[in-house]
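Please produce the structure of this protein holding 6-O-phosphono-beta-D-galactopyranose.
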Amino acid sequence: MARYEFPKNFWWGSAASGPQTEGRIEGDGKSDNIFDYWYSIEPNKFFNKIGPGNASKVYVNYKEDIQLMKKTGHNSFRTSIQWSRLIPNGTGEINQKAVDFYNDFFQELKNNGIEPFVNLYHFDIPMALQKIGGWLNRENVDAYVQYAKTCFNLFGDKVKFWFTHNEPIVPAEGGYLYGFHYPVKTNHLKEAIQVGYNEILASALAIKEYKNLNLDGKIGIILNLSPSYPRDENNKEDVKAAEISDAFFNRSFLDPCVKGYFPKDLIEIIKDRDIMPYILNDDLDIIKNNVIDILGINYYQPRRVKAKESPCIKTNMPMPEDYFDNYDMPGKKMNPYRGWEIYEKGIYDLLINVKDNYNNIPCYISENGMGVENESRFIKDDGMIHDDYRIDFIKDHLKYVHKAIKEGSNCLGYHMWTCMDNWSWINAYKNRYGFISVDIDNNFKRSIKKSGYWFNKVSNDNGFED
Ligand code: BGP
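Below is the modeled complex.
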């Protein structure tokens, strides 16, 4: 038996987002975001045709939910403000009901000893802005900065940890490369790059506004990072392929957000394919001078790649996969429900990379978790879901987080995805991730799973034995 003790004041908790948890009720003043709209025109794209209006009703249940967070060991919790709830038209008038809701939600968290971590953007652009092109349009950057400033002014006295975006690469790749987010385009790398670029610029501008307000807090970004492993470390071509995929999917955001500039190898490719984004004069200085204070790392799975087997045809629409092939490693451990590889050491490799190559910036694991289908089959006589697989998953990752901290990583906490089962984009309620189950057929009734009780003990003991 070994004891895994974590640093004092370690953040134990979980992450969620406004659009995946709040739900909508008549008269709440929220407008449609891209997911509300997409569901309204193509409900059959969503698992069992369940849309975001039926997210887990935190908008009305938050007081009881916070009591459950306490019982599951939370000393911190991340959610996001829904732009389409606070400023329904994207710009202009503020919805007072949203102000009251978020104020009360954040205050209630604090009253219960749970530090609110607040993210400004979790894939949920208001439809009014998508109609003018969304992140492709520079006006969206200005609108976002106004929205961010409004949030800092309204809630900056309570919220001390802010994040400008969650996984900003996802709206770019989901919306324009692989078609799993609205506007459901595929193979549009030039647009994806413009979207990503505008998000990075918007983040830097929001950081600038935040600093100008001199509020006593920290501001960062949440990135989904997947360590990029070559099929064969001794094969130069495989290693090169892994480096390029790392440039596309990790360093594209990590470098500008932490270091203030874009990776050279990526710029070379983008110039070569003639898909540079539209950049104004001061932009690069703004990005350079407004880097993050803190990095949130979402880790689910590694990326395994090999050298390209067929040559890239430059007359086709460019794609990142022109430069590498994905490698399906035999024997890898899988989460079959989500189809994602489970590779615990990846979390360690990410933390050590941040330590060695990103100035050991303060960071934390902002998401890590395991989505499982049909968890009611694990209910035992005590009526509880016995999700031992989730306990093992967390434990095995935490051991590697612990090892990285021992070796000097500045990792300040661990947030699981997610607190209670929530609505997951086109997968809706297919895979359940929470410490707390939500019975969508029984008035969204909540019950703590075995992992929730286990996590409570880990948090109280600030570690575990295994
Ligand atoms: C992350 C997102 C979350 C959440 C999670 C689980 O990428 O930040 O919003 O959804 O993944 O993934 P999924 O819902 O696709 O199963």
